Structures are given as structure tokens and as C-alpha cells.
Amino acid sequence: MSDIRYAxxxxxxxxxxxxxxxxxxGLTQQQVDEATGMHPGVxxxxxNVQRRPSNEMLRRLCTLLRMDYPAVLAILxxxxxxxxx
Length: 85
Prior knowledge:
This protein is mostly helical. The protein has helices spanning 8-24, 29-36, 42-47, 55-64, 69-78. The chain has a single domain (8-78), classed as 434 Repressor (Amino-terminal Domain) (Orthogonal Bundle). Helix content is 60%, strand content 0%. Helix 1 (8-24) packs antiparallel against helix 5. It is globular, with a radius of gyration of 11 Å. The chain starts with 7 loop residues before the first helix and ends in a 7-residue tail after the last helix.
């Protein structure tokens, strides 16, 4: 289990934010899975709030999608009250 503290709202905001960032980057879910070394389908599971990413997985996603990792963690801790971008 991940050591990231998730509030439900924060996880939902994370899923929406990751999907938006992926789409703005012009990447498919499959391309994200491959570029981050995740198993096929993991990006879809995260975006559909079916899976919570580990710290390392989230760090790789943030790097790929050019998102500020500490800001994303702060959003999760606050329960999704603000967006990272």
C-alpha cells in the first residue's frame, strides 16, 4: 500500500488532473503506461479512480506530464481543494 495520504476528494481531483494533463500532452493511456514503465491498463485504472498510484508511480507520472510533484502531494493531503496547475 502506498504511503501517500489520500482523501477521497484529493484522489478524484488527481484522476481528473492526470487525465487532463495527459490529453493536453497528446498522449494515450497506453503511451503513458509504456513511458512510465507501468503495466498495461494502469493509467486507465488511475484515471477512473480504480487504482491509487504509489509515490514512485506518481512521481513518474508527474515527470512525464510536467506536473509539480510536491504540489500534487499537497493537493492529496488537502483533499483536492485546489488544482496543481
